[in-house]
Write a structure and sequence with these properties.
Blueprint (H helix, E strand, L loop, with lengths): L2 H24 L2 H26 L13 H5 L12 E4 L4 E8 L20 E8 L18 E4 L1
Parallel strand pairs: 3-4
Antiparallel strand pairs: 1-2, 2-3
Length: about 150
């Protein structure tokens, strides 16, 4: 074997090792895509929350059911295209629900915004149109049960 051939094999081995270390550090591309989809779901729910609060609903007044026109403009789940669930619980309290692929504590790249942690599966966030402080969030990791997070 010539020196050039040995150097080429060595360079190739370094590249393969670098790719392997990269996948070990951040995960395979599909895993990163799943994390990104969950991030987008949280961002979408935050956007819906803002749209409900900014839709001219005075603090402390009833949220009722959101007008159909505004609900039609709400973002949808980035993977399924389905609308997020909206449930009115009282005059000022409501829930927004989404189905997440992974629990938020498995995300080692970035952290989720405070109050928006979730388990894998269906998670509902209890929200208040008055903007009052809520109980600390409850976290769960069940893939079959609904996790309800109070914000």
């Amino acid at each position: 074997m010539t020196g050039e051939r040995i150097a080429g094999i060595g360079a190739f081995a370094v590249v393969v090792a670098g790719v392997a270390i990269g996948f070990a550090a951040i995960g395979p591309p599909q895993h990163m895509r799943t994390i990104e989809l969950d991030h987008r779901r949280v961002e979408n729910l935050q956007s819906i929350e803002r749209s409900i609060h900014d839709a001219g609903v005075p603090r402390g007044s009833a949220v009722a059911t959101a007008p159909p026109r505004s609900r039609a403009s709400w973002p949808r789940d980035p993977a399924t295209g389905q609308p997020y669930e909206y449930h009115r619980d009282s005059a000022t309290r409501y829930r927004l629900c989404a189905v997440f692929a992974l629990p938020s504590d498995t995300d080692s790249v970035t952290s989720f915004a405070a109050g928006w942690r979730h388990g894998a599966g269906r998670t509902c966030y209890r929200l208040d149109s008055r903007g009052e402080a809520q109980d600390p969030p409850e976290t769960g990791t069940s893939t079959t049960a609904t996790t309800t997070v109070t914000r």
